[in-house]
Each structure stands twice: as C-alpha cells, then as structure tokens.
Specification:
The protein is mostly beta strands and 325 residues long. Helices cover 3% and strands 65% of the residues.
Length: 325
C-alpha cells in the first residue's frame, strides 16, 4: 500500500487512504434496467506505534452523508508480549470469516459473497487477544452483540478463530481455519450461534478459497447454512498470504498484473447486490482485475442469481476504479 510515514526510533506514524468509484447496471426480472454511478468507498486511515503500543484508525468520508466522519475502526493494541499474545481494545473486526478479514480493497471480486455478508459482522467495540506463529494464528474476543442496538455490553458476542497453514513446498500452500461467534439477544431477542469452516489453497498462479457457514438459535428450531467456493488465476503477479489472511495482488511486471476469478454460492445469504435481499438462493459471480501497480486497480464483475423462494432471477454488471494513496 502507498502511504506516508513518519518514524522515530521508538515510534511511527503512517497515513493514507482508499478511493473506490463504481458504475453498476442492474437487471431485475420483470422490471426496467437501472444503473448508478457512485463513490463506493472513500476512507482515510492512520496507523503506527509508540513503544509497545500499536494503533489504527479508519475514517469514512463521502460515502453516505449520515455516516461521514464515522470511525470504521479505531483501536489500540498492546504488543509487548511478542507475536504470541497481543491485546486490542476498541472498534475492530471480529475474528470470524476468511473473506471478511480480507480487506475490501484486496478481495478478488468487487463485492464479497452473499454468505459473508449474511453470516459475518461489521467492526464492533470490544477487547480481543490475537497471536501468530510461523504457520498458525488465533483470535478471541468479547464484543458488542449488535452495534445497531445501543445496549453497550449488556448483550455480548463471544467470537473466536483458529487457522493453520501447511506449506507443502515453495509453490503450494494450504490454509485451514474455523471460527465461531455466540451473540446474545441478537435475533428477535434470542441468542444465536454461528460457526464456519475455511479452506484455501495457493498453487503457483492459482488461488482457491471456500467457506461453509452455519447458524442456529439454541432451544429453537431456527437453523440455516450457506457456502461459497471461489477460484482465481493471476497473470504476472502473486497474492500474498500471512497469518491466516490474504493480501492484495502484487504485480511482478512493469505492465501490471491480471486476475480472473469465478465464485459459486448457495444457501441462506444476503443477496443485496442483485436486489434479492436476505433469502435462500444461488449466485454465480465472475470477475476480472487489472492491477496497474500496487496503488491503481480496475475491476469488472458480473453476478447472476436466483431466489429459491420466489424464483426471482436478477443480474448485476459492475465496474470499479480503485486508487490507494
């Protein structure tokens, strides 16, 4: 990422930002086509450290007049006990979901899957411990159960994740992960439990990832599930992996890098990108990305899906230009 940095022997300060501009065309069955051009994300961030304390803050700008200036993330983290045990306090991502924990500027398809949108959660206020080794990572924390209901910590979420990476050789890496979250008074004032299983593979220019999600409410008949699988190929570049997370594509040529990707998903999800909302459905997404360099990216995606309850069948075409600074 391109950012500005100021550093001293025992402290550092970095700042930068991201701009994402989208054009989308929606085709809704039995309705006129609609199109829209908008700033999808406009954010400023700062991160650094002072001694054994890290900090990070990300501010939303220009996306929605009601939420401009809101902090997406704002936390401090104590790192004095080494990589095996860090403690973070503040508003932060919960450790649940491989695709969620991949930054929105680094995901392969313009928008995350309907499964990730439904089963994972936006950054929440809480306290989290994390750790990592050469081939494993973990995260565990206590957070607000539902930040849209201003109840503080009277309703809590307990969330955790564990990952293991197996480097078979210099060209093949396999990732396995699992996570859970228990949230009190979340769904119609009832507790819910979610868990997921992650799988990913990196082999030369090929990357594959899949997740399975399941949710239930104890002592009720409520139970739902969903999954996705995604396959991509990178020309003249690579996608780094570190401590259970994927990073953005790095071009290996002065001509930039290309990425082609396809995703299939099935189950109860949030299919808002194709105007189906929360329902049981199926969706196929394809995408192409051109990485001019680490800072400039152009993306194209096509999504088509079906609501298995109403049999509605919608499509979306989307183009994005991304600038990191």
């Amino acid at each position: 990422m391109n950012n500005q940095a100021i550093s001293k022997p025992d402290s550092s300060f970095n700042f930068g930002g991201v701009l994402q501009w989208d054009y989308e065309l929606n085709k809704v069955k039995n309705n006129e086509d609609t199109s829209n051009s908008a700033l999808r994300r406009s954010r400023l961030y700062s991160y650094g450290h002072v001694g054994n304390w890290d900090y990070k803050a990300t501010i939303k700008l220009g996306e929605n007049s009601k939420t401009n200036g809101d902090a997406i993330e704002a936390y401090i983290r104590y790192t004095g006990m080494g990589d095996f045990f860090n403690v973070a306090i503040g508003k932060q991502k919960e450790p649940f979901g491989l695709e969620l924990l991949t930054s929105s500027k680094d995901i392969s398809i313009i928008e995350r899957s309907a499964m990730t949108e439904y089963y994972t959660y936006e950054p929440s206020f809480g306290i989290q411990i994390t750790g990592k080794g050469s081939d494993w990572s973990y995260g565990f924390g206590i957070f607000e159960s539902n930040r849209k209901i201003k109840s503080g910590f009277s309703n809590k979420a307990i969330t955790g994740r564990l990952t293991k990476a197996m480097k078979v050789n210099d060209e093949l890496l396999v990732h396995l992960g699992t996570g859970f979250t228990y949230r009190s008074a979340y769904l119609n004032n009832k507790d819910i439990t979610n868990y997921n299983i992650e799988y990913a593979l990196l082999y030369k220019s090929i990357h594959l990832q899949a997740e399975y999600f399941h949710t239930s409410a104890p002592h009720t008949t409520y139970s739902n599930k969903g999954h996705y699988i995604q396959l991509g190929y990178i020309f003249n570049g690579s996608r780094p992996y570190k401590a259970g997370k994927f990073k953005g594509v790095i071009p290996h040529s002065t001509r930039g890098a290309w990425e082609m990707v396809i995703r299939y998903e099935d189950g109860l999800g949030k299919f808002s990108d194709i105007n189906l909302g929360k329902t049981v459905g199926k969706q196929i997404s394809t995408g192409a990305n051109y990485y001019f360099n680490k800072q400039i990216r152009f993306s194209l995606s096509y999504m088509t899906g079906e609501d298995e309850v109403s049999s509605s069948n919608n499509e979306e075409y989307r183009v994005r230009m991304q600038l990191l600074f």
